[in-house]
Amino acid sequence: MPVIGIDHVQLAMPAGGEDDARRFFGEILGLQELQKPADTAGRGGLWYQCGPMQLHLGVQKDFSPALKAHPGLLVDRLEPIVEELKTAGYPLSADVAIKGFSRIFTIDPFGNRIELLERVA
Where's the VOC domain (predicted)? Predict the structure, then answer.
C-alpha cells in the first residue's frame, strides 16, 4: 500500500519548554494548539494544527536542536511574521531563492531550524 500523505511532522524540544513553544508557534506563527490525547499528555510537549497536517513538539531527554533538518511552513503573508520574529529577537537568514516562493529561515526557542515560505506570482 503506498504512502498517501504526511499526517504530522515532529520536532524535539527540551522538557519544560511549553511556554516558550506557545509564544513562538502559537502567538508569533499563529498555529492553533491541539489537545494531546490523554495517553500522551503526560510526556510533555505540544501539538499544533498546521493546515491539513499537524506539527508535534515532543520532549527529548538529551535534547539537541535540529540544525539542518527542518519543517517548511507555508504561510499566507510572510512579512508580518518576519516583523514579529524581529521584534521578538529571533534570528532570520536567507538562502538560495526558489522560483515561486519568498522564504526565510529562523530558529524556534530551542534552536531548531524553521523555514517559512510564501507563494508568490
Answer: 5-119
Domains along the sequence of the chain with CATH: 8-119 (3.10.180.10)
d(CA 10, CA 23) in angstroms, rounded, equals 18
80 alpha-carbon distance from chain centroid: 16
Q: How far apart are CA 121 and CA 10, in angstroms?
A: 30
Burial class (CB in 10 A: 0-12, 13-18, 19+), 33: middle
Whole-number Cα distances in Å, 37 to 32, 44, 60, 79? 16, 11, 18, 34
Identify the CA nearest to 29 among candidates 111, 109, 121.
109
43-65 tens-digit pLDDT: 999 999 999 999 999 999 999 99
**Is-above-0.70 flag for pTM?**
yes
- DSSP letters for 61-110: TT----SS---EEEES-HHHHHHHHHHHT---B--S--TTEEEEEEE-TT
